[in-house]
Write a sequence for this structure.
């Protein structure tokens, strides 16, 4: 990607936002850059009966009360944080340095290879396996797997099945659906993907807000205002 291009973490690309925060991709609100939502699958401290003190964290899935894979979850969260931190390091109103471009491409390639390994072993890492936040982190890696469009499309198929099974968030699926469709030259469905001059073409604009509501997203007019405000602030 040319070094003069800026990107946005909501639409899946690199663009910093105000106040040292990032807009969590797939969300319609801001969260601090180094903190994540307290989803049902969060870890809780437990007492070690042998030592009588608080021991290592034990992740328990909040929906079904079954242990989740805490190692896998934590690795997905670590990679999500690295992904977002690197995207926030992109400067405003100036080309990205060659070093930043190199780091970005290397991180994306590493995350792509890692997600392929996870899916090969586990299938799509859903709520029962890695908790809500871990499943969200897996989606971010898929959203940024642009260098392998065939794999990204496979992730879309797996994520669709996961959402139908209650194992992933519909809003994450909305973003990945748009990502894949725009890459294929097709109109997007939920209006999440933006070019420098505005949203990429949208299929059936009259039904847009109804589709967004079904996916748990707010009205597009509000989203559009927020995105355009960020674009304008980055041009100042």
């Amino acid at each position: 990607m040319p070094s003069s291009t800026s990107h946005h973490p909501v639409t899946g690309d690199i663009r910093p936002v105000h106040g040292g925060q990032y807009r969590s991709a797939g969300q319609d609100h801001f969260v601090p850059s180094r903190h994540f939502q307290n989803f049902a699958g969060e870890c809780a401290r437990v007492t070690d009966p042998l030592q009588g003190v608080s021991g290592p964290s034990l992740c328990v899935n909040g929906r079904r009360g079954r242990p989740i894979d805490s190692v896998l979850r934590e690795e997905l969260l670590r990679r999500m944080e690295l992904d977002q931190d690197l995207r926030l390091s992109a400067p405003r109103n100036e080309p990205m340095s060659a070093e930043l471009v190199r780091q970005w491409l290397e991180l994306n390639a590493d995350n792509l290879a890692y997600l392929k390994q996870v899916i090969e072993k586990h299938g799509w890492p859903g709520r029962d396996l890695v908790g809500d936040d871990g499943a969200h982190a897996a989606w971010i890696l898929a959203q940024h797997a642009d260098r392998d469009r065939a794999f990204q499309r496979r992730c879309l198929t797996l994520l669709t099945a996961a959402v139908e099974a209650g194992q992933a968030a519909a809003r994450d699926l909305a973003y990945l659906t748009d990502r894949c469709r725009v890459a294929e030259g097709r109109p997007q469905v939920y209006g999440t993907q933006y070019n420098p001059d505005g949203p990429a073409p949208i299929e059936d604009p009259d039904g847009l807000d109804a589709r967004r509501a079904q996916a748990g997203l707010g009205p597009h007019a509000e989203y559009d205002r927020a995105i355009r405000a960020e674009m304008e602030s980055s041009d100042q």
The first helix runs from residue 70 to 88. The longest strand covers residues 53-59.
